[in-house]
From TrEMBL, chain A:
<keyword id="KW-0067">ATP-binding</keyword>
<comment type="similarity">
    <text>Belongs to the ABC transporter superfamily.</text>
</comment>
<dbReference type="InterPro" id="IPR027417">
    <property type="entry name" value="P-loop_NTPase"/>
</dbReference>
<dbReference type="InterPro" id="IPR003439">
    <property type="entry name" value="ABC_transporter-like_ATP-bd"/>
</dbReference>
<dbReference type="InterPro" id="IPR030679">
    <property type="entry name" value="ABC_ATPase_HisP-typ"/>
</dbReference>
<dbReference type="InterPro" id="IPR050086">
    <property type="entry name" value="MetN_ABC_transporter-like"/>
</dbReference>
<dbReference type="Pfam" id="PF00005">
    <property type="entry name" value="ABC_tran"/>
</dbReference>
<dbReference type="InterPro" id="IPR017871">
    <property type="entry name" value="ABC_transporter-like_CS"/>
</dbReference>
<keyword id="KW-0813">Transport</keyword>
<dbReference type="GO" id="GO:0005524">
    <property type="term" value="F:ATP binding"/>
</dbReference>
<protein>
    <submittedName>
        <fullName>General L-amino acid transport system ATP-binding protein</fullName>
    </submittedName>
</protein>
<keyword id="KW-0547">Nucleotide-binding</keyword>
<feature type="domain" description="ABC transporter">
    <location>
        <begin position="27"/>
        <end position="261"/>
    </location>
</feature>
<dbReference type="InterPro" id="IPR003593">
    <property type="entry name" value="AAA+_ATPase"/>
</dbReference>
């Protein structure tokens, strides 16, 4: 791990201080199964995320982490089981899918900013066209979030002119402009140079402190220790183990978890 | 020599000097590019000799030995070079064909409206691009259509029998309304069945239907213009009408077909693929021939279809198929992450395509699109096969005119045609190169 993540590891956990709803379910997956052709990629996934909860998912490459969170906003379709997001069940009903996607923000490993639009246009596009917000209002909101991720001065540049860390922060701001109720992160820092990881993690910690419901696929164990309520370990398309971060790191139960942690922490 | 303890080395700033004589200017350029090596020098000399050998006779023929004025074939017969007097005498016919002389101002007007619409569109810095595009793609075609044909069309449908209500604008309006309602009903039904937002699809289709209604209404108004049958159109007018209609129609059709071919709905994908492959598999001449000879056989009696219109439809669909493949190439170049980024933000399919995917992919395929436009422009000459007299056809026809016939008349005409076609195609190509460079700069 890089020095920067070690630095975060030494910070006290913020999780206990934050309130998690005990009744309000943000995402619920019941016996979810998915196949790519013959390949059984998700096996009997059961996961309940309460509002305000911050989940970190880790596991070896190819274990189905991305597939799992991409099912939550239907970038991937599941073939068996039930997924309910914000009270709406994901089926083939395109209207439901659109509704869910409006309420769920997603940050990708490779940012996926729109290269032909400026940073500001990237941020205002969805609020204007999906939420039907007036342009001025959308721009004000976009500037507010660009301020929060600390790059308001880049608003009129194009994504290609920014560093990786800056691009990822824009991607986070772009999602926040839609005022989502749940945020999904798919390895948001793994494509970044070490010196840029911290600036992105700082933004994510800030978001967690505000009580955002977050589901993060990441191997930044410092981040997991600091903000997660629950760490989930996946392997071979299954949830192998889940626990609060302290127990997860100090007292892993399953052999595979132990092996994984020994590889990643040293 | 300086003393060893001295750390200060220089007390004068060396002024900037001019580069050596032989590395700059024309001399330097020639040295570097034409005569850098012995082989390069030999090639340069051979090429220069070849160019002189090939171009001199051409210049002699078209300029030095050419005849510039005269009243009939006598001057051409005496000329050993091009007979420009003939081109001068026929120029109006080359441009307008048999369009009535008294009405030619309408063609001129259309041309100038086009220029006024095009120039600001082509200049990247000119403002109001959106309005400009609406003018060029929405208003101009309708205005051009009315001006060129004369408008005042009496539309009639076949939905309501004559015994119930004689043909009239009102009857047509009612018929149009009925058809629209049926279409909207099925769109709504389809949206409802497939779980899409009904208002969305309904709005789009409703707007299109309203637009068609407005255009039809405009075309039926009597503006007091004398009708000019398309059979009398000719020359550059026909060339430009076929080419521009082909371009304007093939681009959106091509986009739809390209999207269709990549659609997740098997029926749409299959239909688009079949359409594209059928049109790409036949030569344009066959298409035009079928449109003019075969199509009337399939139409019910009494339904006539303007010959020019048939050619236009043939050319547009033919080029749409090619355009679709060009654009599909651009769509394939867009990384999956762009689709996912757009979907994750909640953009619908059409929003995603219109705002994220197409702007990026069209940019990539500008050279391909312009290539298609250039071949389309040249292919318009094929309409002569169905008896339309385009620019080249008009020139060909006039070369046999007894008044001007001479050994050089035909050649002069063809050289003139080549020069005009070349001017159009070359400007398109240069403009495309300019656009490419500009967009490249904007990107990274
Ligand atoms: N579109 C796809 N088609 C077929 N197999 C896929 C596809 N996407 C992912 N997979 C496979 O599914 C497995 C899980 O992938 P993924 O969810 O990306 O894993 P992770 O994010 O944990 O690395 C991998 O073995 C991968 O090769
Ligand atoms: Mg992954």
């Amino acid at each position: 791990m890089s020095d920067l993540s070690v630095a975060t590891e030494e910070l006290p956990p913020v999780a206990p201080a934050l309130k998690v709803s005990s009744t309000d379910v943000a995402v619920e997956m019941v016996d979810v199964n998915k196949w790519y052709g013959e390949f059984h990629v998700l096996r009997d996934i059961n996961l309940k995320v309460m509002r305000g909860e911050r989940i970190v998912i880790c596991g070896p490459s190819g274990s189905g982490k991305s597939t799992l969170i991409r099912c939550i906003n239907r970038l991937e379709e599941h073939q068996k089981g039930k997924i309910v997001v914000d009270g709406k069940e994901l089926t083939n009903d395109l209207r439901k899918i659109d509704e869910v996607r409006r309420e769920v923000g997603m940050v990708f490993q490779h940012f996926n900013l729109f290269p032909h639009l400026t940073i500001l246009e990237n941020c205002t596009l969805a609020p204007i066209n999906v939420r039907k917000m007036p342009k001025r209002e959308a721009e004000d909101i976009a500037m507010h979030y660009l301020n929060r991720v600390k790059i308001p001065e880049q608003a009129n540049k194009y994504p290609g002119q920014l560093s990786g860390g800056q691009q990822q922060r824009v991607a986070i701001a772009r999602s926040l402009c839609m005022n989502p109720r749940v945020m999904l992160f798919d390895e948001p820092t793994s494509a970044l140079d070490p010196e840029m990881i911290k600036e992105v993690l700082d933004v994510m910690v800030g978001l967690a402190l505000e009580g955002m419901t977050m589901i993060c696929v990441t191997h930044e164990m410092g981040f997991a220790r600091q903000v997660a309520n629950r760490v989930i370990f996946m392997d071979g398309g299954q949830i192998i183990e889940q626990n609060d971060p302290v127990s997860f790191f100090t007292n892993p139960q399953h052999e595979r978890t132990k092996l994984f942690l020994s590889q990643i922490l040293h | 020599m300086n003393a060893p303890s001295q750390t200060f080395v220089s007390d004068v700033i060396i002024p900037a000097q001019a580069p050596p004589r032989n590395s700059v200017g024309i001399n330097g350029w020639m040295r570097k590019n034409l005569f850098s090596t012995p082989l390069n020098s030999i090639m340069t000399v051979i090429l220069v000799v070849f160019i002189v050998w090939a171009v001199t006779p051409f210049i002699r023929f078209t300029l030095i030995d050419a005849t510039w004025s005269g009243a009939d074939r006598q001057v051409c017969l005496q000329s050993s070079g091009a007979c420009w007097a003939y081109v001068k005498a026929y120029l109006p016919q080359f441009i307008y064909g048999r369009y009535p002389i008294g009405e030619r101002w309408r063609v001129d007007l259309v041309f100038w409206i086009l220029v006024i619409g095009m120039v600001p569109m082509l200049i990247p810095r000119a403002p109001f691009k959106r309005l400009n595009a609406i003018f060029l793609l929405g208003i101009f075609p309708v205005a051009a259509f009315i001006l060129l044909t004369g408008g005042h069309y009496q539309f009639a449908g076949r939905l309501i029998p004559n015994s119930i209500m004689p043909p009239s604008p009102l009857r047509f309006a009612i018929e149009f309304g009925i058809v629209s309602a049926v279409i909207l009903f099925f769109v709504g039904l389809f949206a409802w069945l497939s779980g899409r937002p009904i208002a969305g699809s309904g709005n789009v289709v409703g707007t299109i239907l309203a637009g068609i209604a407005a255009v039809l209404a405009l075309c039926s108004i009597d503006f007091g213009l004398v009708p000019v049958e398309t059979a009398n159109w000719g020359g550059l007018l026909v060339t430009l009408v076929v080419a521009i209609t082909g371009m304007i129609a093939s681009l959106p059709l091509g986009i739809l077909l390209a999207l269709g071919r990549r659609s997740e709905m098997p029926v749409v994908r299959l239909a688009s693929t079949i359409f594209i492959e059928v049109w790409r598999g036949v030569p344009l001449i066959t298409v035009l021939f079928m449109a003019s000879v075969m199509l009337p056989l399939f139409l019910p009696d009494g339904v006539t279809f303007d010959k020019l219109l048939r050619a236009l439809i043939g050319v547009a669909l033919f080029n749409a198929a090619y355009m679709a493949e060009t654009i599909r190439g651009g769509l394939q170049a867009i990384p999956r992450g762009q689709y996912e980024g757009a979907k994750a933000l909640g953009l619908g399919y059409w929003q995603m395509m219109r705002m994220i995917i197409l702007p990026q992919s069209l940019r990539i395929v500008i050279p391909g699109i312009v290539g298609s436009f250039i071949s389309l422009f040249k292919d318009t000459t094929l309409v002569i096969i169905i008896g339309l007299y385009d620019f080249l056809g008009q020139i060909q026809a006039s070369a046999n005119d007894a008044k001007w016939a001479s050994p050089v008349t035909g050649l002069t005409g063809y050289i003139f045609a080549a020069m005009v076609f070349w001017a159009f195609c070359f400007s398109m190509s240069r403009y495309a190169a300019f656009t490419e460079r500009r967009l490249d700069r904007g990107r990274r």
